[in-house]
Hints:
The structure is a single chain. By secondary structure, the protein is mainly α. It contains 1 helix and no strands. Keywords: Coiled coil. Residues 10-52 form a coiled coil.
Amino acid sequence: NARRALIRSKRDQSAELQNVIDTNKELKRAKAEESKQRIVALEAQSRELRQQHLRQQHFHAQLIREANDQVKQVADDGRQNTARRRKMLHDTVIADKAADAPPPPLSA
């Protein structure tokens, strides 16, 4: 009887130990799954942040291109205005010279 009680006691201890081991395995699996989910979430967040950064860079580049185009347009307008003023001045000088010059001699 004492022997049976000892065997039963050892069997109970073994079952209890197996329960502890199974519980620990389940906790480790749960932690591993939680870690995997966290990694997936962080990767998704990282992708979204990279895409957002790229969108900001593209927007910034577009603003710079537009500003450069505006500066070029202003410079072109300035050059055209300068050319018009020079031509008007040249035409005025030519007209003044023509008014002051004697008429060309007539060929006989």
